[in-house]
């Protein structure tokens, strides 16, 4: 496996940090946070080309600011739009508990 670039490491670290954030939120809201994170990362990744470093760096900075806001202990829930729910349904996965995605029957 080839070594990751600096920007790849930044994106991966941001995603890991976001996933760790989920565990610090109330159990009843963790599904919404996890869906929000997965949807945001996947859809944003589809909007930029792999070689467009300026756009990727911009998204990392934007994601970092958003994550800083959501890490505040006063934030207990996040909004999940119908589009996000439809995306989850279309992907055919159900996130029953944090970190355990299972295929739907």
Structural notes for this entry:
- The protein has one domain.
- The chain has helices spanning 6-23, 27-47, 53-70, 82-91; strands at 93-97, 100-103.
- The chain is mainly alpha-helical and 105 residues long.
- Strands 1-2 form a two-stranded antiparallel sheet.
- The main sheet orders its strands as 1-2
**Beta strand count:** 2
Distance between the termini: 35 Å
Largest sheet: 2 strands, antiparallel
Overall 3D shape? globular
Q: Pairing-aware structural class of the strands and helices?
A: mainly alpha
Domain Complex 1 LYR protein: 10-69
Protein name: Complex 1 LYR protein domain-containing protein
Pfam families: Complex1_LYR (PF05347)
Subcellular location: Mitochondrion matrix
Summarize the structure.
This protein has four helices and two strands, in the order H-H-H-H-E-E. With 105 residues, the protein is mainly alpha-helical. It has one domain.
């Amino acid at each position: 496996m080839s070594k990751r670039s600096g920007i790849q490491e930044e994106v991966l670290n941001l995603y890991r940090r976001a996933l760790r954030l989920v565990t610090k939120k109330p159990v009843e809201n963790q599904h919404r946070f996890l869906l929000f994170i997965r949807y945001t990362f996947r859809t944003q990744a589809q909007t930029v080309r792999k070689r467009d470093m300026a756009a990727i760096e911009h998204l990392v900075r934007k994601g970092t600011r958003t994550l800083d806001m959501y890490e505040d202990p006063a934030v207990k829930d996040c909004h999940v739009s119908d589009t996000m729910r439809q995306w989850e349904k279309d992907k055919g996965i159900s996130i029953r508990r944090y970190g355990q995605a299972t295929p739907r029957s």
